[in-house]
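Collaborator request, handled under Task 6.
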Amino acid sequence: MVLELKEIWTKLNLIGGEYAWITQVFIVVFISLLIAAIQKALFNRLHERLLKTNTFWDDALVDALRRPATVFIWIVGLAFAARIVGKETATPLFDAADPLRDVGVVVCIAWFLVRLIRKAEANIIVQRRRQGEDIDVTTADAISKLLRVSVIITSILVALQTLGFSVSGVLAFGGVGGIAVGFAARDLLANFFGGLMIYLDRPFAVGDWVRSPDREIEGTVEDIGWRLTRIRTFDKRPLYVPNATFATISLENPSRMTNRRIYETIGVRYDDVEKLRPILADVRKMLDRHEEIDQNQLSMVYFNKYAASSLDFFIYCFTRTKVWSEFHRVKEDVLFRIMEIILGHGAEVAFPTSTVHVPDGIEMPGVRHPHPEKMAMPQPEAARENGLGIGM
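Structure tokens returned to the collaborator:
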């Protein structure tokens, strides 16, 4: 068996003979594999160490470089091997190895820059939050997207120039074709510029609670894209709104309110009319001393209506908190305190009632009249004459 292998090796003469190029291709591929493995192990160790540092740029740079570097090594190695094969076999197909290698290098560089921008954005947000600093996620996302789009457009133009296309001709064609594309994709462009206006005007940001009185749109903003904005409704359903919609509707942003308002109407019985003034005075004192009510905002307590079954007064004030759940806790406490004030004055909160006045002379079944003598009703003379008198 060994002798047979030696004879085959001697006949092929892969070192200096006719088929020596096969050995060269094998060596090139093996070296590429070895360099890629060394690079991968080196970058993995380096990234683990850089994660322990306080600087976010170094680990973002290494992490963004790992995959593009591996692909770059294989592109260069395989292109070199393809040149060897093309030179020895004179196959026209392998002539495309050099242009494809150049395009591959451009793609790797663009890939590295896009990854670096994305990872730097994520690291900046994480580090700022760890340090307790406020950061505008919407602005950071907008800048990141603009940078990534710029890198992608630039890399496409460079790749076309590398393949022999005239960039000026491409731009001229794009200017003429852009008119046709603009008419064909009006909605797409409207959504794109709508997203751009959201980033510039900033009516809301990621994490804000928004709602529209014009449309059935209400929820928390999760993502602002170039075409769509994703809003998570309060029943946890995702709502995808085209960005162009925000240019034609009114939008509220309750997340940016300064205070939350308590505006309630409370009724007291008509029987407690003499106690209404001291009740209102005590409610005003309670609101003035309440630790959760913002005293810098307008606060009012006034009697304002004679209702059907109650004397109504209203309270109007603002809480310090803007948190929805905390607001309801404060509102509950205020209402309980008002109830205690009303009961403390010996009064009661009114509820809808009706009073029926029964005139004398009407007998209720099963009810004994306190004055039976008044129940005798005189019979009209005409009724007696016609034989229709009562009691006949």
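The cover message to the collaborator said: "The longest strand covers residues 260-268. Strands lie at 209-212, 217-224, 228-232, 238-242, 260-268, 300-306, 311-319. Please let us know whether this matches your experimental observations."
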